[in-house]
Design brief:
This protein has 247 residues and is of the alpha/beta class. The chain is 41% helix and 16% strand. The structure holds 1,3-dihydroxyacetonephosphate.
């Protein structure tokens, strides 16, 4: 469905020096033309990345504030991100949900505000290990989806990232079938609760221990429309391999 989409979530990693190297590796990489490629540096390096990275690759933030800027110590506004040329924002990442404590409603508000200001939103969902083991994977994902659906005015500029929490940073990638099953369920949910059109055109990407070795099998699945990559996105050549796994 749609153009293959690969995002690199650099999380809270990197230095001016390591990011200079990563950008230079990305600038010299051969990237399949028919893939949307986005990287999400830490806020403090966005300006450096924007001014040195090829326009072929777009830049995302890893978070944004829920409304216009002002007296919100430590926050970064959507307007500031746009001022730096940022086109996307990752919202609802499991690390923000489970380590920092953001809830569905707060995330929904952030998504609605970012979209209203013209940013694309990479909207993350995904279950914990204990939720999967209790057979609650679909329930958890649907509840997170509903919070986005209740808040956003349109799905035009949203990519859904399914990231099972047990697969993030653990080296335990979901099997292609496990990922495919959830992606199909997400698409069915969109069809029933939003519209058939949104269900068929919204890209659903997979994240969680994706690397250069496992991306090709995952990319073959009919409903996997791309990836959100953590650790492996810090290595330019491996990230390029993942971008080029489009089938
Ligand atoms: P890893 O690829 O390091 O498992 O991280 C996935 C992720 O959380 C991307 O947002």
């Amino acid at each position: 469905t749609g153009k293959f989409f690969v995002g690199g979530n650099w999380k809270c990693n990197g230095t001016k020096e390591s990011i200079t190297k990563l950008v230079s590796d990305l600038n010299s990489a051969t990237l399949e033309p028919d893939v949307d490629v986005v990287v999400a540096p830490p806020f403090v390096y966005i300006d450096q990345v924007k001014s040195t990275l090829t326009d072929r690759v777009e830049v995302s933030a890893q978070n944004s504030w829920i409304s216009k800027g002002g007296a919100f110590t430590g926050e970064i506004s959507v307007e500031q991100l746009k001022d730096l040329g940022v086109k996307w924002v990752i919202l609802g990442h499991s690390e923000r949900r489970h380590i920092i404590g953001e809830d569905d409603q707060f995330i929904g508000k952030k998504a609605a505000y970012a979209l209203s200001e013209g940013l694309g939103v990479i909207a993350c969902i995904g279950e914990l290990l204990e939720e999967r083991e209790a057979g609650k994977t679909f329930d958890v994902c649907f509840q997170q989806l509903k919070a986005y659906a209740d808040a956003v005015p349109s799905w035009d500029n949203i990519v859904i990232a399914y990231e099972p929490v047990w697969a993030i940073g653990t080296g335990k990638v979901a099997t292609p079938q496990q990922a495919q099953d959830v992606h199909v369920a997400v698409r069915d949910w969109l069809k029933k609760n939003v519209s058939a059109e949104v269900a068929s055109k919204t890209r659903i990407i997979y994240g969680g221990s994706v690397n250069g070795g496992n991306c090709a099998e995952l990319a073959k699945q009919e409903d996997i429309d791309g990836f959100l990559v953590g650790g492996a996105s810090l290595k330019g050549p491996e990230f390029a391999t993942i971008v080029n796994s489009v089938t």
